[in-house]
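User: Design a sequence. Structure:
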């Protein structure tokens, strides 16, 4: 099956995807095989319904948000290249990749791009900030899917959202910008390393 997948992808496409995403040749061909198995319409693209059939996404509290990350605004289909670009955010960060080519753009799996990807999971309206309502909506998603049987009131979730915004918001606009998001996570990293 792997040879069939690689025969459908041109070598230059594989090389371009390798360069852009950091995936190996064998990873790309395996993921292409997975992509084509999800492509029930056999049209070279995936829609949201194709992703919703993946059991791991179906049980993930942020599954809908992760699925949405595959689709640029206004798009309802993703091709293999777009699929691979999004998956690259989930690759581990490898120190040696940082030193390869100083003129190359930041790898998709760099710490900053991973943080931006995570930030965008919370920024539901894509206005480059996380509001209290957006944070509350994501908290509700997480509680509904993860904590079946646990009774957390909307008031308690609101309190968590308020405290989170209060801790992260440095400019007083009652929302969390990407830079504020990064600073909070850096603070958490430092506290975890103590």
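Assistant: Done.
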């Amino acid at each position: 099956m792997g040879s069939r997948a690689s025969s459908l992808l041109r070598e230059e496409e594989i090389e371009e995807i390798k360069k852009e995403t950091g995936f190996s040749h064998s990873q790309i061909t395996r993921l292409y095989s997975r992509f084509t198995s999800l492509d029930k319409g056999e049209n070279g693209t995936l829609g949201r319904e194709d992703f919703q059939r993946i059991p791991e996404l179906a049980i993930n509290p942020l599954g809908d948000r992760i699925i949405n990350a595959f689709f640029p605004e206004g798009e309802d289909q993703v091709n293999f290249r777009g699929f691979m670009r999004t998956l690259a955010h989930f690759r581990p960060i490898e120190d040696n990749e940082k030193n390869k080519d100083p003129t190359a753009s930041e790898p998709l799996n760099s710490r900053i791009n991973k943080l931006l990807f995570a930030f965008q999971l919370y920024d539901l309206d894509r206005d480059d900030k996380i509001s209290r309502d957006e944070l509350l909506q994501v908290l509700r998603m997480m509680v509904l899917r993860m904590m079946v049987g646990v009774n957390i009131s909307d008031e308690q979730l609101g309190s968590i959202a308020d405290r989170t915004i209060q801790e992260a918001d440095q400019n007083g606009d009652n929302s969390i910008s990407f830079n504020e998001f990064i600073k909070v996570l850096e603070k958490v990293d430092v506290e975890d390393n103590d």
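The chain is about 60% helix and 5% strand. Residues 178-193 form the longest helix (16 residues).
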